[in-house]
Design brief:
Oligomer: single chain
Domain Isopropylmalate dehydrogenase-like: 7-352
Distance between the termini: 26 Å
Helix content: 25-40%
Bound molecules: 1,4-dihydronicotinamide adenine dinucleotide, magnesium ion
Number of domains: 2
Family: Belongs to the isocitrate and isopropylmalate dehydrogenases family.
Catalytic activity: tartrate + NAD(+) = 2-hydroxy-3-oxosuccinate + NADH + H(+); (2R,3S)-tartrate + NAD(+) = 2-hydroxy-3-oxosuccinate + NADH + H(+); (2R,3R)-tartrate + H(+) = (R)-glycerate + CO2; (2R,3R)-tartrate + NAD(+) = 2-hydroxy-3-oxosuccinate + NADH + H(+)
Largest sheet: 10 strands, mixed
Low-confidence stretches: none
Mean pLDDT: 96
Function: Has multiple catalytic activities. Apart from catalyzing the oxidation of (+)-tartrate to oxaloglycolate, also converts meso-tartrate to D-glycerate and catalyzes the oxidative decarboxylation of D-malate to pyruvate.
CATH topology of the largest domain: Isopropylmalate Dehydrogenase
Keywords: Manganese, Metal-binding, NAD, Oxidoreductase
Length: 360
Amino acid sequence: GRKNGLRIAVIPGDGIGQEVVPEGLRVLRAAAKRFSIDITFDMFDFSSWDYFEKHGTMLPSDWKEQIGGHDAIYFGAVGWPEKIADHVSLWGSLLLFRREFDQYVNLRPVKLMPGVPSPLAGRKPGEIDFYVVRENTEGEYSSVGGRMFAGTEREIVMQETVMTRVGVDRILHFAFDFANRTKRKHLTSATKSNGIAITMPYWDERVEEVSKSYPEVAWDKYHIDILTAHFVLNPQRFNVVVASNLFGDILSDLGPACTGTIGIAPSGNINPTGEFPSLFEPVHGSAPDIAGQGIANPVGQIWAGAMMLEHLGYPEAGAAIVRAIEDVLAQPAFRTRDLGGEADTETCGKAIAGVLEAAA
Ligand code: NAI
Ligand code: MG
């Protein structure tokens, strides 16, 4: 509970998760000190190959009791494909957290940072700065459907999109409310009601309806095909972009790709009701190709910590971490190899923590 300080469940997981999480914690501790936030970190070794090797499962049977009462989960990465198939490790841990804790929002900031070259020619920091809000539980990703007459000339395959009023309205409320709390107060809805002529008109209808509760938020909508073009051609246009599961999946990879390296992008899997903890993690995985060398970029993990503090009611602390990241990325000496620098993971993490300490 908030009253007795924050309790965070920390799960480093596999590979570079073990290297970037300590830097994330270093920065969170520095921010906690500066903003007088009382945080306790509880470390968990499950959701990793090491745990699986010892116990034969990714999680203990009482994992929900162990981490379900925490204020949030701070997650590194899971996956070690040489030892264990990805569908076993991911479905046996991270995807269970998302589902069982009803983390129906996937939130990803898209922000061009100093020192990170954008693949979009001529774009400068400040010109790309928005959020993608993805519906994380229903929509196009359903298990409703099937295959008949398999292997014959009459073979039939169907998979249904499922949109529920509860499911659509709750993601729209989150997105409008989120947009309402931003400076620009603007929201864009991703649709395709010209082609997907049943569920997408329904989505549009609910956007129209839910928007009435947020009169200060200006909103527009684009069909997904032209929307992807605008992400590349006019990224300055966007503030908060809300989308169904499939469209959001695509946009939440395309957006961060427009801002450079995978090593700096964070993501929140959010249960807005607070009934269950939300989970904050970098977008990247366990990177077995560079694991154990101490050269991974810790910025995605650190930025995920900033999102976590913002979500838990400490927006100034979150913003201070993001500013410290910007300060440090602007200095070539602290850039890791994926950004063309020579700094190691710890050097970069310490520099970001140092900015927060110096400002205290
Ligand atoms: P990956 O994100 O781990 O790595 C892709 C490429 O980006 C690699 O060349 C890697 O070295 C580089 N990279 C990633 N993060 C970096 C960082 N912080 N600093 C510098 N370079 C970085 O994706 P990959 O290789 O497809 O998957 C590896 C494992 O991670 C698999 O088991 C996969 O299932 C798992 N995975 C887990 C995720 C999660 O826990 N949320 C997300 C994505 C993948
Ligand atoms: Mg994806």
